[in-house]
Design a protein that fits this description.
Strand order of the largest sheet: 6-7-8-3-9-10
Order of helices and strands: HHHHHHHHHHEEEHEEHEHHHHEHEEEHH
Number of helices: 19
CATH class of the largest domain: Mainly Alpha
Strand content: 5-15%
Helix content: 55-70%
């Protein structure tokens, strides 16, 4: 969902002011402006009713303050006041609930819009970002940012603004009905309270920020360790991981204690200011009653006003701290949305039109790091409906070709075309829809086997999913399990063997049925018997399609129409298997080494 921004985005990594963060949030709320207006109307009605309660209480007390010999209609005046008092109390609760009910859609809708936009943006970022990210810390930032939307709206609309409205009403009533001293005492206490709260909260924000950073660090450490459970077990490093996690927890504990100590200081100072204001107000009101300037009802009303103001003010420090923290958390999530898209669609880019499926690498140069080039002036063609294999030693740049073709990265020089269309000039969605891949390292979702195969084409029928599984020679294995296609594969597919995972990946790609196929070490995890069986299926799947086969084992590519030999990012040989063997060059040497069991 695209939401227009009314404020220029801060530079990635640059600190943003609190007002800048709020301005960044406003366009999302603007969609619900009529709800905001209605909520504010109910808020004013609730506060008017709330301020009316002490006024009515004063009238009730004064009505009961009977002078000797005075006749009172007990069943008329107090009964009416008591009924009105009850109605005001009910009105306060009713208007408050209506306010929250009508604005709930705005709160939840805003949180949903921002979360969805962050999610989409993260998927739009380049592979480089996702290789460098820390998953645990990033997910915690998103979680806190989403919660911050609720907190900001809740505290501002439901706490801060209502308190300000009530303060203005009370100060006005005190100044008009009594002498200005009551209003000045109240206003002075409020100014002192707010100034003290803001000053101390600003000072202690750094401790809270440090605590959050340490919390994210500990969370990242735990997630990373659990994701690498098998590696931890292989080396017996459970205690080592526990010690590293505990070191993070200890730093978090110290930061949390420091944060709590400063919070206690803040709360104590606030109570001193409120207590001083209460004493001054009650002392002056008591004097007024003794001197006959005020009634007992006035004293009760003033006391009730102070209690009504005291309750929300007592939480002002907490609210201000939470708002500041929410702004920090929200800014961090907005920062994710401002991460640079290394690979982005050009404005008005058309969709890729695949007619024949001819893929060309034309003078391609590429480097993950400018100081270490990977590919050098690489050129070759995969004709329509043909299979071209790329072989070479580890680090030659074979898998980089698949990443460039999928546009996980853009080429540094030269270009890659499909049917003459530069893949940088078309939309990434249409490009990736036209390409299917069986990767070397297959990672599955923590869901059912059916879900993981159907992921190749969401919406495929059960029969189509099973047909793809049969073609990948995994149907019999799935059918033999107790839950069949509803078997859960576990985190990253850890419940399946390497070969089973790879066959699920093959089935997923066969189900997608794209015009261009990439097999990146597609059978590397299979035994010889399964490899031969699946090689036949892969050949059948590639029939009539443009296929790029990236392989380490040369025996898997002997049937390719052409074999391209890469070494240090350059094409050193190319041709069919028999021709390359006859040539007696680098390919023939690699073949001889592999056939003798020495490898590369």
């Amino acid at each position: 969902m695209t939401v227009p921004s009314t404020v220029a985005a801060a530079a990635p990594g640059a600190p943003r002011s609190d007002w800048g963060t709020l301005a960044r949030l406003l366009p999302y709320l603007w969609r619900y402006r009529w709800r905001v207006g209605a909520a504010l109307a109910f808020l004013l009605a609730a506060k008017a009713a709330n301020v009316g309660v002490p006024v009515l209480l004063k009238e009730l007390v004064d009505a009961l303050a009977i002078k000797p010999g005075q006749a009172v209609a007990l069943l008329v005046v107090p009964a009416g006041l008591i009924a009105a008092y009850g109605l005001l109390r009910l009105s306060t609760s009713l208007f408050t609930e209506l306010r929250e009910l009508i604005f709930a859609k705005a709160t939840e809708g805003t949180a949903r819009s921002i979360s969805l936009q962050v999610f989409r943006h993260l998927h739009a970022l380049s592979l480089r970002f996702h290789l460098e990210r820390q998953t645990g810390g990033m997910t915690r930032d998103i979680e806190r940012g989403t919660r911050a939307v609720h907190s900001l709206i809740s505290y501002s609309l439901y706490s801060i603004f209502p308190t300000l409205v009530e303060v203005v009403m009370v100060l006005t009533l005190l100044a008009v009905k009594f002498d200005a001293a009551f209003a000045w005492i109240t206003a002075g206490a409020l100014v002192a309270y707010v100034a003290f709260t803001v000053t101390v909260t600003e000072w202690r924000t750094k401790f809270r920020r440090e605590m959050n950073e340490l919390d994210s660090s500990a969370h990242t450490r735990a997630i990373d360790s659990l994701l690498n459970y098998e590696t931890v077990k292989y080396f017996g490093n459970e205690d080592f991981e526990a010690r590293r996690y505990d070191e993070n927890l200890e730093r978090l504990r110290r930061a949390a204690l420091k944060s709590q100590t400063t919070l206690s200081l803040l709360n104590t100072g606030q109570q001193l200011i409120i207590a001083a204001a209460l004493i001054a107000m009650l002392w002056r009101a008591t004097q007024g009653v003794v001197e006959g300037r005020l009634t007992l009802g006035d004293l009760v009303m003033i006391n009730a006003f102070m209690i009504q103001l005291y309750i929300p003010l007592n939480f002002l420090g907490v609210m201000y701290r939470e708002i500041k923290q929410s702004l920090t958390d929200l800014d961090k999530m907005f920062g994710l949305m401002e991460k640079h898209r290394e690979v982005d669609d050009k404005s008005g880019a058309p969709a890729l039109q695949v007619r024949e499926g001819v893929v060309r690498f034309e003078g391609v140069g590429f480097a993950y790091d400018p100081a270490r080039p990977i590919l050098h002036d690489l050129s070759f063609e995969i004709p329509a409906g043909r299979t071209v294999a790329v072989v070479g030693p580890s680090g030659a740049g074979k898998s980089t070709l698949a990443r460039l073709l999928f546009r996980f990265y853009d080429v540094g020089s030269g270009r890659i075309t499909i049917d003459g269309q530069d893949i940088r000039e078309v939309t990434q969605a249409s490009l990736r829809a036209a390409i299917g891949i069986v990767p070397q390292d297959t990672v599955l979702f923590n869901d059912t086997v059916h879900y993981n195969i159907a992921y190749g084409r969401p919406g495929a029928t059960r029969e189509e999913v099973e047909a793809a599984a049969r073609a990948a020679h995994i149907h019999d294995f799935i059918a033999a399990t107790p839950k069949g296609y509803e078997t859960m594969v576990g985190e990253r597919g850890l419940k399946l063997s390497g070969g089973e995972k790879q066959r699920v990946a093959i089935a997923r790609t066969l189900l997608k049925n794209p015009p261009v196929l990439i097999f990146d070490e597609a059978t590397s995890a299979l035994d010889s018997a399964n490899e031969r069986a699946i090689q036949a299926e892969l050949r059948a799947a590639a029939e009539g399609k443009t296929a790029l086969v990236i392989a380490h084992r040369l025996s898997t590519v002997v049937d390719a129409h052409e074999i391209v030999v890469l070494e240090a990012g350059r094409v050193v040989e190319r041709g069919p298997h028999a021709e390359l063997l006859a040539r007696g060059g680098r390919y023939a040497e690699m073949w001889r080494l592999q056939q003798s069991g020495q490898g590369l």
